[in-house]
Amino acid sequence: MRVLVLGTAAGGGVPQWNCACPGCAAARADRRLRRRHASIAVEAGPGRWYVVNATPDIGEQIEACPQLHPGPGRRDTPVAGVILTDAELDHTLGILRLREASGLRIAATGAVRAALADGLRLDAVLAPYAGISWTELPEKAPEALDGGPLEIQAVRMSGKRPRYAAELETAAGDAWVVALRVRDRRTGKVLVYAPCLAAWPAELDEALAGADCVFADGTFWDDEEPRRAGFTGRTATEMGHLPISGPGGTAGRLAVLPAARRLYTHLNNTNPLVDPDDAGHRRLAAAGIEVAREGTVIEL
Q1: Each residue of 146-158: pLDDT tens digit?
Q2: DSSP states along 181-208
Q3: Where are the domains of the chain?
Q4: Count of alpha carbons within 13 Å of 260, Cβ hemisphere only?
């Protein structure tokens, strides 16, 4: 299994267009510090890649990865489709940028599909350009992706809705936020991608127990970061993101996992980890944990 790291930032990216925090200011001064919205791509078969979460940066992310460049025909593309872990705008706006495709394959839970198709009228908006083919993201048991060697399964995380879908009528108990578990039947290797963690349910522990590579929500370094930064009166946990450090932080949980690779992604612009020289990197490295780097290719 091959995995491409396309982006590592939370909503707004780094720098965020309307933010002058130290992280954003540094990224404006040094382009090497910039981060695109969090996303990965997994290879479903030779020359066939699925993008996990379609961000506003998807065009630039594709251009930055030779594996995703079009060819050999003028309109041939290795981008086979999109898998969504939630319906947040920073994970779905990129679908609109794929309108030049002959058709779009999207795998998502029922709640996410309802939010996009009914709440945002995505199907209607894209119909004159490219029709959408929806696939239900399996929860109860893994299913083969495109009939190939990879199996995918959604691991339910929380019922955290995007703000635009707060009043949308959907079935009770729908899965709004999931982690994605991908298993390669050829090797038995397992990837878990969990960019949004409002809680740490038992189902996640089960999915992580046999994982070889884990991407986890690293939005905020500690629980007070959002309030300290001054852009909200809520803590990280109250905003729907478990912090990395402190009581209840996720670093301790990641440190004891058997996975060979444990990486944080989805960093907010206020997170000190956006600075590659911040001491937090060394603290995490001592526990065997990395901060994902854009452009990285991981082979499992």
Answers
A1: 999 999 999 999 9
A2: EEEETTT--EEEEE---S---HHHHHHH
A3: 2-299
A4: 7
